[in-house]
């Protein structure tokens, strides 16, 4: 494991919200589920800036991949099962089947989205590189996937990922991050 990845995993392991959520995923989430994005970069930035666990979190994004049923109803059933296992989760859980993102993305964001082959492929299209983190528990501890590496998150930097025309999403996220973690250096789109 490279040094940045190991440091990031260490910071995540020390965050109570992250560890609680990773345990929940292992117990009740659909197979192959991962905790992603804000819970992870937020945990790292909170640790690095001395803020409490959970600062800045509006939800806990959990992704999975099930191409056997692309209906909204199937995704909703999975979300309700997970919510029943953790009825008082704060912040709330947002569970999304990455196999079906291409079906709704254009209507919500105004651009096309590729049909994915795994949940982790979705990270390649997140608006910011520091956002593209996924974690779950394995037999040896926290398994972390970071297609752009961990340097940006460890260096308190937000950089755009231009693989999709996500300027509006990136700018909304950047504005929110600037108020929550003013130490973060934000590159314009």
UniProtKB/TrEMBL annotation:
InterPro entries: NTP_transf_6. This is Nucleotidyltransferase family protein. The lineage of its organism: Bacteria, Pseudomonadati, Pseudomonadota, Alphaproteobacteria, Minwuiales.
């Amino acid at each position: 494991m490279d040094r940045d990845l190991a440091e990031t995993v260490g910071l995540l392991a020390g965050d109570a919200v992250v560890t609680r959520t990773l345990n929940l995923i292992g117990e009740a989430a659909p197979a192959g589920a991962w905790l992603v994005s804000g819970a992870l970069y937020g945990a790292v930035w909170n640790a690095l800036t001395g803020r409490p666990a959970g600062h800045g979190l509006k939800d806990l994004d959990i992704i999975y991949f099930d191409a056997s049923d692309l209906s909204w109803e199937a995704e909703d059933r999975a979300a309700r099962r997970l919510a029943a296992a953790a009825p008082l989760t704060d912040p709330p859980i947002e569970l999304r089947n990455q196999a079906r993102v291409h079906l709704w993305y254009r209507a919500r964001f105004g651009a096309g989205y590729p049909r994915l082959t795994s949940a982790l492929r979705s990270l390649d299209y997140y608006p910011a590189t520091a956002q593209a983190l996924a974690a779950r528990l394995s037999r040896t501890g926290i398994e972390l996937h970071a297609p752009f590496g961990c340097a940006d998150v460890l260096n308190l930097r937000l950089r755009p990922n231009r693989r999709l025309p996500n300027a509006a999403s990136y700018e909304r996220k950047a504005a929110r991050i600037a108020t929550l973690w003013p130490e973060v250096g934000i590159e314009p789109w």
